Amino acid sequence: MTTTAIPLITVVIPAYNAEKTLLETLTSVSNQSYDRLEILVVDDGSRDGTLELAHDYRLRDNRVRVLTQVNGGVARARNHGIREARGVYIAPVDADDVWHPHKLELQLQALRKLPEGKGVAYNWYAAIDENGIIFGHSRPVLHQGNIFEPLLRENFIGNGSTPLMPREEIIRCGGYDAGLRDSGAEGCEDLKLYLALAETLPFALAPDFLTGYRFTRGNMSSNALRMLKSHSLVMEPIIKRYPHLAHDIRAAKFNTARWYFNRAFAARDYNQVRKLAPMMAREYSPQLIAHGLQQRFRQVKRHGIRVAKRLLGKPSAPKNVFAGAAIPQPGTPFSDRFVPIGELLSPKRSRMTDNA
């Protein structure tokens, strides 16, 4: 097959003080079934052993290159990697997230269904904790093709470690916006780029939970108020360009705020709850009332359906599969989705040939 049929993919891993998780991330990249990869670790001025770990891993897999920069944030680190990339496609993954071994292969298969294979591929994710244990998952949507308006209403991609994107189109869009960090609003750089790409490119879905997205109290997405400020700054110019979508964008901002509040409450992060509650009450009181009534109606409806099924002798069974994909089960390791129990995840073999 030609190199066009087997394109080089550049994996970009921004890493800042990531010595606790980087090895697991790198291993999940090395273990990809699609192996024509260039793997760029961009050390963002780390003060721990991140840089040394990356250099050591380079001895195990020489597809890895290590880049460094003065600390400038995740957007600048990703952009640095994109500038240095040789691949046709860019696959970003944060240094605390992990991939299913078939992620890139399945995404390429999805892209080949698009006209000329040109577009962006995404998948669903499983939410994992510090120990790689699943505690939730993204809502499995089926949006494909022109997904600009659905993505405005809901960031169903949900993180920076999921998409597979054409490098030249990322550069055309200006890459990740490092200015959000400079404005004290770091967090939605990935969403801003996805929306810019979605204005002109179709998106393809690889329908499975292929990204393990790690939530910890210390990571960027745990700072809810900063993320909400970032979301507002990203949406402001879009409202100006598409005023007819203003209502949908306002609804998205409310749903985003509610999501962060619910997540903080479920995690018993009461410091975040105390910060969010006054803002929610001040800015979204009517929406909260309407949402509460809708939720109550849905609860009554679901209860009525369960009662009716029991009376008819049709007990409800939990749904374990959606669109052919096994739904992530809370309390199980993400690695159990692809590794037999008892088998450690490790690089398939030493990579001492230049695949680039």
TrEMBL record:
SUPFAM superfamilies assigned to the protein according to its UniProt record, in alphabetical order: Nucleotide-diphospho-sugar transferases (SSF53448)
Domain Glycosyltransferase 2-like: 10-147
Residue runs in coiled coils: none
Entries under InterPro entries matching the protein: Glyco_trans_2-like, Glycosyltransf_2, Nucleotide-diphossugar_trans
Entries under Pfam families matching the protein: Glycos_transf_2 (PF00535)
Record protein name field: Glycosyltransferase family 2 protein
Native source species: Rhizobium bangladeshense
